[in-house]
């Protein structure tokens, strides 16, 4: 046992003291991380609990950031009051939506009705195509459908359906609960324009007046908060404004391209694919999963029509990648499409349901903004 200069013996050697110090530091880091994880988990549970209240407000906030420049332009150029400018914007939006409904709703309804009517025919065509081109797979499918287990399952489902119909009176409470849930969802949807109206009345809601509002903070901290807020708002606005515009343009391109190629329900599928491209890759995957089978199975379809559908999809995707995205989105968001896709599914799982889907991009944008801030201030090149 070593002794210090004072002559008193020590309990631990230098090496042991270092090990104890390292273990204590490691334990402190683990406790801090556990506390952070607990706080984040608690906040996520709180957000999930209040998701029905928060997601309409989040949607309204994003729309307010996108539409605020239009309200500012009406207010400044036409010399109107702020509330008048917001009312004018609502009126213009109502006129545009009404016109789109009159133009788009009839063909949408017709094609949806035709799709419902022709689903059995598509099913029989798919079975016939399978028997003609994949006889082994067709035999396996027929054996599966004729197996006792599948037939027993069908009988069980039929019996359960009859019991459900027979006990419909006893299930009214559950049906009423489901109806209330649906009505609650639509009530929250109707709250979005209400929230949006009052958010648009606010000036400098994009962070421009934040420096003056945070005058009580020290100058360095105030500048940091202002930088983070402006970067965050810029990413969110650039992403949603650009993606919505690109989605609308792609929807028109897909709809006209599929219609000219002769694809049944091409108008509906094209518009759907365009708007689904707000989530990167989702519109393309939807098109591959729906448009190609329809092109192969419709009465006048086949491989030629499937090839035309692929040509339309390739042309539209090339236009998006080489023309629309560079010109509309540029490099303002700093969010890679793959990162956005992963973020949407991640936050949708963590926060559960629509709130996670709505907040996925803002939360990811906040993390990107924080990283940019740390890199700019603490990791200079």
Rg for CA atoms: 29 Å
- What portion of the residues fall into strands of 2 or more residues? under 5%
> Given the helix and strand composition, which structural class is it?
mainly alpha
What's the SSE pattern? HHHHHHHHHHHHH
Query: What oligomeric assembly is this protein in?
Result: single chain
Q: What keyword list fits this structure?
A:
381 residues, mainly alpha
What does this structure look like?
- The protein is mainly alpha-helical and 381 residues long.
- It is 83% helix and 0% strand.
- The protein has helices spanning 14-49, 51-77, 82-133, 135-146, 148-166, 172-201, 210-213, 219-261, 266-276, 282-297, 303-329, 337-351, 354-378.
- It is extended, with a radius of gyration of 29 Å.
Précis, in short:
The chain has 381 residues and is mainly alpha-helical. Helices cover 83% and strands 0% of the residues. It has helices at 14-49, 51-77, 82-133, 135-146, 148-166, 172-201, 210-213, 219-261, 266-276, 282-297, 303-329, 337-351, 354-378.
